[in-house]
TrEMBL record:
Pfam families per the UniProt record, alphabetical: EGF (PF00008), PAN_1 (PF00024), Pentaxin (PF00354)
SMART domains recorded: EGF, PTX
Species this protein is from: Actinia tenebrosa
Molecular function GO labels: metal ion binding
Domain (Pentraxin (PTX)) ranges: 157-360
PROSITE patterns reported for this sequence: EGF_1 (PS00022), EGF_3 (PS50026), PTX_2 (PS51828)
Keyword Thylakoid appears in the UniProt entry: no
Gene: LOC116293338
Similarity comment: family membership: Belongs to the EGF domain peptide family.
Cofactor: Ca(2+)
Disulfide-bond pairs as recorded: 143-152
Name under which the protein is recorded: Sushi, von Willebrand factor type A, EGF and pentraxin domain-containing protein 1-like
Superkingdom assignment: Eukaryota
Keywords in alphabetical order: Calcium, Disulfide bond, EGF-like domain, Glycoprotein, Metal-binding
Lineage: Eukaryota, Metazoa, Cnidaria, Anthozoa, Hexacorallia
């Protein structure tokens, strides 16, 4: 860390204040900008990023040169020590952006922006970046891929999709496209049903098969389609009891084996479902209604009534103990073929239709 030494304030005329060098520029043609600089305690300079070199009799004059140059983010200053030369070097980088470029240099002092970052500002592994030229924002958090928010406080998987009581056939969410070809999969989701009617959980359609993967409940019986081949799992179903329930289905093209889990408990395993089939890539995923054609063909009687969350698809058959763990809480896991966070409203490639709503934060709770 660089300690602070001399301090000056500029607003038309220089003043000595605390231990910072401050400038405020406000003209008819320049938006008000306020820069706060701190001076290095040791003789150092930022090298390799000088955009302009001038002579300045005082550091405040060098500061003013920096304030007039839009690209200037920091500066190096060498005062006149009897050789008759004072040097002002304007930089387009800072100690924060190029820490390895600040090196010892006789007679020079580095002046950089006061850092507004502290170790606890950005959460969940986010990186704090100082903002120099915005009077309303002193820092910005660069979040890890799974987080968002001003301080990276929001997990991108922490939401539900709510679908109303079948107002029309147009209430659903689309995600296009799934880039993975599948020879096996695990579908995992949480759902809270409000009516004892038919429900579509996940519909994956390709140009060849509109039921490439279709997980739904019809006539109170859970069903799975793989490449337009159906298997039902009577008497197993998800109850419409106002509570959250976990559902998982696995499939492999080896012997066409399918296993069904409800609330982490294995319910049934069958064979000969789309044996040796391959599920094509680049299809469209729908949540809450069935695609009877590629990206379309929705009807009201197939619509989900309630809320759904944590829909993930893995490109493998997950072991039983992993599925039991997934069912134990509404977590923030991400599938390898389709990840729940990709359904978040505003994410790239996702579209909300009709009365489908994103609910943040998630109300999903199990058990």
């Amino acid at each position: 860390m660089l300690a602070m030494r001399s301090v000056l304030f500029w607003r038309g005329i220089p003043l000595v204040v605390t231990s910072l060098l401050v400038v405020t520029v406000n003209t008819e043609n320049i938006k008000t900008r306020r820069k706060i600089f701190q001076r290095s305690a040791q003789e150092t300079a930022l090298v390799g990023h000088v955009i302009q070199s001038t002579q300045a009799s005082r550091d405040i004059d060098c500061l003013m040169d920096c304030s007039r140059e839009q690209r200037c983010l920091s500066f190096n200053y060498k005062s006149n020590r009897g050789d008759g030369i004072s040097v002002c070097e304007l930089n387009d980088q800072t100690l924060q952006s190029r820490p390895d470029s600040v090196v010892p240099m006789d007679g020079y002092y580095y002046y950089g922006p006061e850092s507004s970052c502290t170790s606890d500002l950005c959460l969940n592994g986010g990186t704090c970046r100082p903002v120099i030229d915005d009077p309303h924002q002193r820092y910005q958090c660069q979040c890890l891929p799974d987080f968002t928010g001003e301080r990276c406080e929001d997990n991108m998987a922490d939401f539900d999709i709510n679908l109303p009581a079948r107002q029309s056939a147009s209430d659903y969410v689309l995600l296009g496209k799934m880039p993975h070809q599948l020879t096996s999969f695990t579908v995992s989701l949480f759902v809270n049903l409000t009516k004892d009617v038919d429900h579509t959980f996940v519909s994956y359609a390709t140009p060849t098969y509109h039921n490439a993967i279709f997980v739904h409940q019809r006539a109170s019986i859970l069903r799975l389609w793989v490449n337009n081949k159906q298997r039902q799992f009577s008497p197993n179903k998800i109850d419409a009891d106002g509570a959250w329930h976990h559902l998982a289905m696995t499939w492999t093209n080896v012997q066409g084996q399918v296993s069904v889990y409800i609330d982490g408990i294995p319910k049934v395993t069958v064979l000969s479902v789309a044996t040796n089939n391959v599920i094509q890539a680049n299809g469209i995923v729908a949540i809450g209604n069935d695609q009877d054609s590629y990206g379309g063909g929705f009807v009201a009687k197939d619509a989900l009534c309630g809320s759904i969350s944590r829909v993930n698809i893995w490109n493998t058959v997950l072991p039983r103990d992993v599925i039991t763990s997934l069912a134990g809480k509404c977590g923030n896991e991400a599938g390898t073929a389709v990840a729940w966070k990709d359904f978040r409203k505003g994410a790239t490639g996702v579209s909300y239709h009709g009365e489908a709503k994103s609910i943040v934060p998630s109300a999903c709770k199990y058990p």
